[in-house]
Amino acid sequence: MTLRASHSVPVRLTVLAALLAGLSAPALAVSNSVVISQVYGGGGNTGASHRNDFIELFNRGSTPVDLSTWSVQYAGSAGSSWQQTRLTGTLLPGQYYLVQEGGNAAVGTVLPTPDATASIAMSGTAGKVALVSNQTTLTVSNPASNPAVVDFVGFGSATNAYEGAAPTGTLSNGTGAIRNDGGCTDTDNNGADFTVATPTPRNSASPYKLCGGGGTNPDPVAQPIALNCPATITGRAGAGGSGILRASDPDSIVDSATITGGARTGISLAGFTAAAGIGDSASVQLTVDASVAGGNYPVAVTFTNDDGQSASCTVNVLVSGEQTISQLQGSGAASPFNNTVQTTTGVITKLLSSGYYIQDPQGDRDPTTPDAIYVYTGSANAPGKVGDLVRVTGTVTEYTPSGAPRSYTEIKDITASANLGVGQPVSVTNIQLGAEDLRRYEGMLVSFSGGLTVNGNGYLGDRGELVLGNGRLETPTNRYRPNTPEAIALAAANERNMVVLDDNSFTTPAHIPYLGQDGTVRAGDTVNDLVGVLDFGAVGGGGGWYKLQPTETPTFSRTNPREAAPAIAAGNVRVASANVLNFFTTFTNGGDVTGATSGKGCTIGNSTSAGNCRGADNMAEYIRQRDKIVNELKAMDADAVGLMEIQNNGDTAVSYLVDALNASIGSTTYAYVPKPPATGTDAIRVAMIYKPSKLSLVGGAMSDNDSINNRPPMAQTFQVRSNGAKFSLIVNHLKSKGSCGGGAGNTDSGDGQGCWNATRVQQATRLAQYFIPAVVTASGDPDVLAVGDFNSYGHEDPINYLTGTGMVNELERFVRPNGTPYSYVFDGMSGYLDHALASSTLDPQVVGVTEWHNNADEPEAIDYNIGDTADDPYVNNAFRASDHDPVVVSLNLAGASMDVTASVKIVQSGLVLSRGTSKSTGTVTFTNTSGATLTGPLQFRLDGLTGGTLDNASGNQGGAPYITLPVSNLAAGASVTVTTTFSNPNKTTIVYKPVLISGTF
Q1: Which DSSP state fits 792?
Q2: pLDDT attached to residue 20
Q3: Do the beta carbons of residue 178 and residue 157 sit within 8 Å?
Q4: For the segment 709-731, what is each residue's pLDDT rounded down to a tens digit?
Q5: DSSP letters for 483-530
């Protein structure tokens, strides 16, 4: 069957090798119960006999079969990807069961009322259908050996799995596979058991057929009455309506019908015709008088037969009436006229591709009832243009997008519409976002008071959406501990304070909307005097929410301008962390940075394949990604940088990045820290780069390869060349919040911490109790800075644990007093997953911390990827180099110092007093007698000085003046002489103890 618009089922291509394994399988046992009796896949195609595909089942056995846990499943002729339709009810001996699948309402005849309905797009020529006694989706090309498979039919010569020697013949748009003898034949051979002919679909109301031979019922039971009742009958107030109900019995005569429930004046039965004989149908007309007011009336009708049996069905009588829009909407969460056919009148305020909005210009002056409603037409045109008054008749329904927290009232299944001419102008209603329930304004023409802030732009490129709020929305657990009253209240406030600005289209936009002249629209920017219709529907990322379809072009203000580089207080060492968003030198197309175009792969654990690769798809994307990251690193100008999400391929990826960074700078400014012995089992790892001119490595890199860390933290101790100070940098990348698993504590508990929280707490515990102490012991220095992507917001359990052990949260210390710290934007809320945690000894030496918002505020649509959007807004700059913002830390590290007086010979000259100036001068000579070079800087300190003041002191340390010697180092045997000048107005004796210090005060 050719794929058509109404069968929107994804097609999955599979490789031939996987298919060959399913060409043969053991045959199923002959079924003495339920079998597949017809298969038809040409529904709705050109020349189709019926509008829908279908699968027919038949009970050829002697006992009823409960189908409530069963399913029918379909796969393509050579496929192993199965789609299932769940079954319900009990199938009696000799009874048929009709499963309706996908189709096209424009071609072919309508099927009898189906017993089960789905939308699988079956092939019109060849495929596979399995009847399964459970509702577990099959996974192999030939499932015939699965004990849960009750019956199996392979149809068409191209099919690779079937019962017996051959599949059924090949089908067409006008033919189906029909089991012989009305479904009774079953020799476990598809080719022999089925005939290809014009399909004759039967349902549970069709005449029964009791099989003879192997399927004969030796002890026949009284068969029940089979009903064929429509689910609904529609009518209109003032005009009425009617529908036909039918019933039959395979072993009795249906001879009466009565209303046994929901009886009311104006609804009655008329024209009953008894069955002409056993197995024939009786019929009756359920009529609705013109006097019946609009509404939904469930009516129960009971049929009886000449054996004293009875069976009942309930028909929903939907009578349309004239209601105002406000009456249809009502003041509750759902319309009081839900699932009824109604007529209403309003002025068109907005046309969309699948419908239009109408609003009552007068309204009902009740602030709890919306004055507008959406009319869903599908592909049909609206009856007028914006400003026209129209009358519409259709079914009032509550539409709930998948995953949405509430429904939305609309009118669908339009049976009549009329243009009544130009309507009255509709006034714009001003609302305050965050202060009111948006349900009160469903479908209405509204404006938002003041400016709204852009809070999310992740789906701008593929859906044309921006998440707006009254101010910046903060992730609750970024500010408060999870599950506290404060966090719960903030989550509720955020939900109220959120609306999605759409672009008047429900598809990928032809051009990315709302980008400014500088090629972006940033979170934190504002839009003023926004006017449009308040819609409700699916939003990017899943679920549904209120969406504004603008009627006037929005105007944005760049209230959150880009910063060319991070601004931070000066110190003597600058450290940063940067998530480089899957920087790989091996590409998803199988090529790599060397120019190879195929055959390469990435490693996860013991698996190596191109399917494990992330990041750039090809060389062109790699260059764009690399250049953005280089621009980011160059602008930060940090002396050491911790990197997350770089390919775990030894030092290959990090060396390529360093080479590109140095080439952009024009000198060999940076080097990478050689990888530690263990880098984990993930496709990505953490890494470090640094400036050798500023820092030297002390020992090798360390990592913690404990099984809790699939991306082990990496540590490196550095020494500052200018003053000998040491500190250790630890780069971390904890378990992500997505794809729950791993048992207790790792599911999403709904407290805002997401999945894998227990694992992250274990990783934080391991970091604090084992790895940091190990690093401190190895370095001999307590100064530790832990940075990286902890995948935990500011007050979540892992961070709370680490700060509880004495680590200081530097973002809370430096950034929180001036605003919201954030490095990541998700679901329209901002928070920081990227941290800078200092040991208690390092904390006093931290002089500044900042987040550079070059990434999180930027739309994903402007990143390095090619072909993801209709436009290509890529610019070779530092913005949207990643989805995380980098964190920059400024340190002012105190230099290491050591008394080296014992290593030198000190010779002091006598002091000469100048009578004119009253100053005394002399010299002091230091000769290195240690046999080894003394490392500078070298400080001559005058301890216990009395009798005068040292005029030429370089500084003062601990109350004693000192002079910095004019040499960087003092070689073995070398000497250096300095002059001392003292103010000595009293002409007293000057006394001091000479001390030589190596290091900086």
Answers
A1: S
A2: 26
A3: no
A4: 999 999 999 999 988 899 999 99
A5: TSHHHHHHHHHHHHT-EEE--S-SS--SS-TT--TTS---TT-EEES-
90, 207 contact by CB (below 8 A): no
Is the N-terminal amide bond of 336 cis, ω within 30° of 0?
Answer: no
- C-alpha distance from residue 89 to each of 67, 204, 318, 994 (Å): 6, 10, 26, 102
From the list 765, 616, 578, 604, the residue with the least C-alpha distance to 679 is 604
- Give the pLDDT confidence score for residue 44 in this predicted structure: 86
Cα end-to-end span (Å), the chain: 84
Q: Give kind and range of the element (H or E) at residue 665.
A: helix 652-665
C-alpha closest to that of 243 among 282, 286, 290, 284: 286
3-state SS, residue 632: helix
Please enumerate in sequence order all residues whose Cβ is within 8 A of that of 108, keeping only pairs 6 or more positions apart, or say none: 43, 44, 48, 49, 50, 51, 52
- Write out the H or E segment, with its range, that includes residue 799: helix 797-804
**What dihedral angle (degrees, nearest 10) is formed by the CA atoms of 893, 894, 896, 899?**
170
Q: C-alpha angle with apex 436: 431 to 442, nearest 5 degrees?
A: 70
| CA distances (Å), origin 29, targets 59, 457, 751, 885, 966 | 16, 58, 52, 63, 99
Q: Which residues contact 234 (CB under 8 A, 6 or more apart)?
A: 241, 317, 318, 319, 320, 341, 415
A 10 A CB-CB count for 195 gives: 14
When pLDDT is averaged across residues 26-40 and rounded to a whole number, the result is 72
Residue 607 has pLDDT above 50, yes or no: yes
The two three-digit tokens of residue 108, written as one number: 């072919």
pLDDT > 60? residue 587 = yes
Query: Whole-angstrom Cα distance, residue 502 to residue 614?
Result: 30
CA-nearest of 840, 852, 792, 788 to 813 is: 840
Going by C-alpha positions, the residue among 138, 131, 118 that lies closest to residue 9 is 118
Provide the H-helix boundaries in 290-449.
325-329
The amino acid occupying position 265 is T
Q: Residue 517, class by beta-carbon neighbours within 10 Å (0-12 exposed, 13-18 middle, 19+ buried)?
A: exposed
As given in the structure block, the two tokens for residue 850 are 């900042």
The torsion angle over the Cα atoms of residues 875, 880, 882 and 886, rounded to 10 degrees, is 120
- Looking at the DSSP assignment, which residues form a beta bridge with residue 242? 287
Helix axes 619-636, 652-665, angle to 10 degrees: 60
Task: Give dist(CA 54, CA 56) in Å, integer.
Answer: 6
What's the token pair of residue 541?
A: 């990322």
In the three-class reduction of DSSP (H, G, I as helix; E, B as strand; rest coil), residue 760 is classed as helix
- Give pLDDT, residue 837: 98
Could you tell me the pLDDT band of residue 32, with boundaries at 50, 70 and 90? low
Per-residue pLDDT tens over the stretch 207-239: 888 886 433 333 445 788 989 898 888 888 888
* pLDDT tens track for 116-147: 999 899 999 999 999 999 999 998 999 988 98
Find the mean pLDDT for residues 959-974. Answer: 94
C-alpha–C-alpha distance, residues 945 and 645, integer Å: 58
Residues 6+ apart with CB under 8 A from 902: none
Q: Whose CA is closest to 715, among 666, 768, 765, 675?
A: 675
In this structure, the number of other CB atoms found within 10 A of the CB of residue 485 comes to 8
342-356, 381-395, 737-751, 839-853: least confidently modelled range: 737-751
